[in-house]
Amino acid sequence: MSEQNQHGYSATSARSAETLQEISDIKRIMERSSRFISLSGLSGIAAGICALIGAYFANRILKDYYEEYNLQGYTDDHFAMLKIKLVIVAAMVLLAALILAFIFTWRRARQNHLPVWDLTARKLLWNVLFPLIAGGVFVLAMLQYDEWHFVAPASLVFYGLALVNGSKYTLSDVRYLGYSEIVLGLISTQFIHSGLYFWAIGFGVLHIFYGAIMWLRYERVNSQ
């Protein structure tokens, strides 16, 4: 009788294990079909490094401008050139970050045998791009009318909104990065003369921090 009970218990345990495995497989399939899970934490780290490098050059540009300002005073030409240089630096940082993000994301998708460009990726891109484009136009308008004090806060807040808006189509960590960017942007409105430092923290330090967390949680095991 005890052998029959033991045999029955073993069979039940085996069926339970198979059921759990099936549930896990179904959950994995549903997750892959509804969320873009190929986003790499290394993309965030690379973007953060690019942002810190960009902040360094932007700081150099600002120092050169204020040196000329102390020698020659304010001129419209010098201020216009300052805005152009800063926009160029920001554009180069964005381009480098996007290229590296694509490379690392494509690499992870290939490792997991997943498509890089599918319906979920398109939904993610659209939900991120719409707030980003709106924020970019808003920031350019502020620069046009010399309202530069709130450029850094606005860029952080709109970027955070873009991440929160797109987070429902990718890893949940992106949502918390978005919340952090929004909070940091709102705080920076009270320190308008330190905008570059907040910009470096938001786009640099936070990207590296959350990118490292994502890599440790989702990619370290696979890389090992």
Report on the structure:
There is one protein chain. With 224 residues, the protein is an all-alpha fold. It contains 7 helices and no strands. The protein has one domain.
Low-pLDDT ranges? 24-34
- What is the H/E order? HHHHHHH
Oligomer description? single chain
- Structural class by helix and strand composition: mainly alpha
Overall form: elongated
Rg is 24 Å
End-to-end Cα distance? 47 Å
Strand content: under 5%
Mean pLDDT: 83
Annotation, overall tally of beta strands: 0
Instruction: Give the domain tally.
Output: 1
Please outline the major beta sheet. Answer: none
**Which percent bin holds the helix content?**
over 70%
The number of distinct helices, counting runs of at least 4 residues, comes to 7
